[in-house]
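User: Assemble these into one structure.

Assistant: Restating your components, then the assembled model:
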Amino acid sequence: MAVLDQDRPGAGSGAREASRAELPAWLRRIHPVVWLLALFLLFVPAFTNSFIQFQIFGWAFLLGMIALSLMFLAGYGGMVSLVQMTVACVAGYMTAIFGASAVESISLFWPWWVAVPVAIVIAVIFGTITGALAVRTTGIYTIMITLAIAAAFYYFGEQNYSILNGHQGFNSVHAPVLFGVDLHDATPFYYLSLSLATLSYFAVLYVSRSPFGLALQGIRDNPRRMAAIGFNVTAHRIAAYAFAAFIAAVAGILLTWQNGQISPFTAGIGPVIDILVIAVIGGIGHPIGAFIGAIVYVVLRTFAIDILHNIGLDPSRFNMLVGLGFLAIVFFSPDGILGLWSRWRSSRSGAGLARVTGGGRGRDVE
Amino acid sequence: MNRFVQRHPVWSVIILLGAILLLWLIVSPWPAWLEETIDRKKVFINAVFNGVTLGALYFLVASGFTLIFGLMRNVNLAHGSLYLFGGYLGYTVSDYTGNWYLAFLVAFIAMAALGIVLQIGVFRRMEGEELRQTLVTIGISIVLADVMLWIWGGDFYQVETPDWLYGAIDLPIITGFKSDGTAVYMKYPAVRIFILVASIIVGILMWLALNRTRIGMMIRAGVDDREMLSATGVRIQLVFVAVFALGAGLAGVAGVVGGTFQALAPGVDTRFLLASLVVVIVGGMGSIPGAALGAVLIGLSEQLGSVYVPTYAVVTTFLIMVLVLAFRPQGLLGKG
């Protein structure tokens, strides 16, 4: 993880203390923007059509939540887990199996308020078990093992007809009607995904500053030292996986409701990698990066075909655009868009630059 | 070997018994009760042979992967793309020239060259930053997949087999008896036997190169401790380039092999990337014998699984991985 947080302000423990002391000033500076953003997000349905609300913002919030769960593991725990999309899909599958779908031979048709908690619990158990497996090894191995687990789940979904209904998956998995409001309508779904995304964003922020989160960051920076002063490194890491799995599971259920269906393709290698791409493009240093990456990704994915067509390129080369953009980000700004932003800001004020490099160096010296 | 027997007597006996049982299952004709419980012998033998030949292919792919990983700590997630790229190139070459051997040569040289470019142009610039290297390989695999889709489209391709490998040959294994008492021998596609033999030769050559040559000694030393190796004056960057070229070239060759007895299509790259991952996780990262053992295990479990528990075939593979991770996280033959 040293790669990603190298020149992030506050990566070292000393620098983190400093940045927390400055926090009120930082908050005061950023406040108007946050308020504007909150107002904007609240009133998006007033001036956009249902496509924008449902397909752009709704999708971005959900992908952002899954990327957020990855960001939590990677940014605070130093564990790059590629299994988050799979956890989300497990939750989606479970809602389809326990709840209602068009596959009447498999679905149990329990009411949604039973099926959803059961789905979340199963997905969290799945995420915790994969976490327990993944923490058997560390660092670069984590990527390999989680990718192998994710791919195994995809092929399992393709093969297994008795539980997961094979290649087809489950159709007509609809969001419930709550107090007369159909959550599958664009505007209610927009607010549902917005509120859950906001909740999970603040939950991650809160946990990252809680004793648990601080211990996790300590483990990221130096597991051996944390173990020496009495922290149970493995238990902290597995708990982090469980927490991340919870966020991913909630997003996965919403994603299934949004699509109306779940199939192995949703958990395929492409989507699994896309979550990592989203998190890295946005920036793994801060929870907001996941959502920035998600909105960039969704806008690209939705409109790139038109854009490519308009500038005279072959529109089917979308993946190359994403791949090259991803490569450019990894090459030039390991902190993603957030890193670009903070570098731009610090280049305007010389003091900021000193702080950034100081933070990076302080970590190495320590 | 002897040390293993001394340290784990119970396990040695279990492994020995398993091997004897497998040998008996393969060599002797099956009694009637056995055929009643688990289908005909022919099915079983076919699954075993398919599993071993698939394992041979996996070994070709995974040995390069594990070598690159062991030496450079670079999880090359573009390895599957190199496999598919090599396969497509081999197909194109053999389609134009009609020469199967030329396909191997071109695939090896082209992929090795690509590997050299990647190592010098990309990975050397971010040495020691393992995560960043891995992210870059993800980006490369996305781009390569799209380039291949652009050039070769979404069709299935199969590399033409040369005439002398066409058809099936009889193996000295009795699968059953006809009603008049004559033994029925097993028929098996010649091309698969060829692949098996070729993989064993490649494996032995690699073992010899690693254990009997100077550069092999450098590579093994680098796997154990690359800082000390470079401190002794070895030009480690050259070793890195050589290993990356060899690993990438092997992936290309494996692509032609895979294209001959399976098919080439988009998505094959991730399948073989996954296979390489699982093989090296099971066998032990950075170990060539581990890659061989893991490849055969995974190949067998995939084929036997798809015959006897069709909808759970992947789970058997996955279970092997989980068991290995749970009891021996460094892999079966990995260094602890």
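The CA atoms of residues 27 and 173 of chain B lie 6 Å apart.
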